[in-house]
Amino acid sequence: MHRQDNLLFHQAKVTGVDFANKKVMATGVDPIPYDYLVIGLGAIVNFYGTKGAQENAFPLYTLRDAVRLKDHIFKTLEAVDKDPALIDDGALTFCIVGGGPTGVETAGAMAELLHAVAEIDYPNLPIKERAQILLFEHSPHLLGPFKPKLQDYAKKSLKN
Ligand SMILES: Cc1cc2nc3c(=O)[nH]c(=O)nc-3n(C[C@H](O)[C@H](O)[C@H](O)COP(=O)(O)OP(=O)(O)OC[C@H]3O[C@@H](n4cnc5c(N)ncnc54)[C@H](O)[C@@H]3O)c2cc1C
Prior knowledge:
- This protein has two domains: 1-42, no CATH class; 53-159, FAD/NAD(P)-binding domain, CATH 3.50.50.
- The N and C termini lie far apart (45 Å).
- Helices cover 38% and strands 15% of the residues.
- It has helices at 53-56, 63-82, 101-121, 127-130, 148-159, and strands at 14-18, 23-26, 29-33, 93-97, 132-136.
- The longest helix is centred in the last third of the chain and has 21 residues, at 101-121.
- It contains five helices and five strands, in the order βββααβααβα.
- The structure holds flavin-adenine dinucleotide (FAD).
- Flavin-adenine dinucleotide is lined by residues 13-14, 40-42, 60-61, 102.
């Protein structure tokens, strides 16, 4: 953005907006006056009131979430490798809630991880026979806002 001579960047946390006086308050800088204000603060995880989800699920929104999930999956595979009885408790069953883009992508990535990586790295684990990926979606179709052709394609690809 160097060629934009009317643009300023601040690394700062916005703590408030004075709408009456059209000023943005941020840490470490003086209040910033504005004519028009665009707010693009992103989204946070929504558990839709599902009981236990916040305490027990692994949300996937930030890089930190992704690393935490990856660590959990590999720790689980390590644990099952040492103690195959854990499979009967569901240790090779991976549940993904939400059949939107993130859930569909995660289900596909999980399948790749299990079959292209884990089957080779853990040759003693019965991944082909026992591993399951369960994708839950409460509406009738995956990828709600997409065209039916793409919804069907995603479903068929995941089933394969
Ligand atoms: C797992 C996953 C996979 C995805 N894959 C894709 C994909 O393949 N293709 C695609 O198009 N989209 C994908 N998305 C969606 C895409 O990431 C989001 O739609 C997009 O990032 C939204 O952009 P945004 O600018 O609204 O919010 P964000 O990208 O969340 O940006 C908001 C920014 O605001 C900052 N902020 C928040 N509060 C404050 C504050 N008080 N003061 C200052 N700064 C603040 C945050 O630090 C952040 O940098 C994916 C999302 C997820 C979770």
